[in-house]
Amino acid sequence: MPRLRLIDPAGRWLSSTEPGHVRVVPATATATAPEADLHADFTGDTCLRTNLVTKRMLDAAHPGQVLEIISDNLSSVETIPFMLEGHGCEHLATVHHGNHWRIYARKRQPPTTPR
Amino acid sequence: MEMTASGHTGMNSGRSHLLGAASVLGFFLVVCFWSYAIDPRYLYFSAYIAFGLIYGMSLQYGRFCMASAIRDLFAVGVPRMAVGIMIAVVLFSLVTAAVSLTGASSFHPSPIGLYSVVGGAIFGFGMVFTGGCASGSLYKAGEGSVAALLVVAALSFSQAVFVDAGGPLDALVPAAWTASAEAKGMPEQLTVTKGWYDQFLAGYIWDLKTVRVGEALGFSSPAAAAFIGNALITSILPALAILAFIYYRWYRKGYLKQRKDGATGLGVHLAGWWRMVTASRRTAIAGLVLGIAAGLQIWVTQMLQKKFGIGNAGELLQGLGHTSGLSLQDTVFDPGYFYVTTQEAQGAGWVLEQLGMNLRDNIFFGLENGLPAPWFNPVLWLSLAVIGGSAVMALLNHEFKLKFPSLEVAVWAICGGILMGIGARVGMGCNIGAFFATVTNGDPSGWIFAAGMTAGGWVGVKFFNWWIERKMAKETPLEF
Fold first, then answer.
1. Which residues in chain B come in under a pLDDT of 50?
2. How far is B387 from B220, CA to CA, in rounded Å?
3. pTM of the entire structure?
4. B374 is in which domain, residue-wise?
């Protein structure tokens, strides 16, 4: 199961980042959240960066995949659910954990053309 | 399906958030009661504090931010915030029209000119990088965002320095501005022919005309001037037109696709338009509260001015024996309505004055707004209360988090904040003072500022998009 981690080459002062390439790790299911195929952690990022990278992620996802977007930016948490339909995704849940939020979305299957 | 589950971490965390909220609120209550006990005239300050708390709570609840409005529309096609702002504009204009009929309005229109577009563009460009407009940065600071605090600091100090800056900047002043400023016969304590901003004000801005649509259209009835001229023509119709355009450009296609019944026609589009307007409950409620509160503040301020027999808080401060921060006209900045940026400039200016800078020889501080100590600045208390109100709301909802920015975000915050400060001064206000307060009071210059702000925001989004693409191409390819 692939995992996307946004890397900031300038470095963050407090939160840690992993150097190097994207790592692929299994998704972790929680009691109240759907099992996700893709993860993106935007903790500490600005709203515009969060929204722009999420948009790319939504467009790049394959049909049926479940995405987990983690953010502590309330503006993005509010905006992202409204973005989903426009990128062929459905909003599954928004879960508030402590002081961050996890937004879950599923990429819809494309409509099938009747024979 | 959408559900929001909150995973609050236990009773202790909940109790500490409640205590935090109570402490913040308690601080402002103590200030209000204690100052009233010293002298009842400090009630004037308490009114600013009370409305600041309301604004802060509403802004935080609705995640209300004009930077979001522009950024979310252009970057990701989400009209939520733009819709919320238009709701607030419509409501504020109606309340203001009603208030003006009571004879209680302290509003002064801004001159009409191209400076609004230029100032708005610089401001709009800057706010894309900061992640918040002027009021947005205040409420985000209340949520614990240190980056937002950096923005507020940057825009405060950049204004204070900009309004006094001369030297090489004087070379950029057109000769006509210098001549016009000199001819105004300003007090000799002011050096109006030196300093870019002094000559901008005295040599250009003061020569422009102001307009309030209600008065300009010559309605015989004050009610018609207020409701038809100022509210309907200047605010409501443009807001509805903007909402219609937003629906057509960003919402219609997705809405019709979702319906699946293939139906079209005016009824369908009206339903879709209404769905767009009510899509975000939070934003709609915040817009409602902000619009009504902003209008009420004008009335409350006027009532207090009548009660205390004053026209400006400077007279109040004089009566209370605090004269050191007054302008040459014995005034201080006292708009009587929701405003951001000028009072922050005063706060920064006061700090710079303590560090030895002379900031009293310019029009902005010396003649118009003064440099009172922060605790004697009623409008600065409003800004502090916006931060406080936001903190209260965030703490009550377990949304408060002290967030320290990365170096990159900090640099964006400071650079964007500096641009916002300069843009606010050139544009004679920010998203609140130059747009929200103006268009809702029949002053069309606000729409000119908004056009500039939108254009600057669009350019900012395009640039930021390019920056992100470039960084992502270097850092991390998306792989599944």
1. 1-9, 479-480
2. 43
3. 0.88
4. 16-468
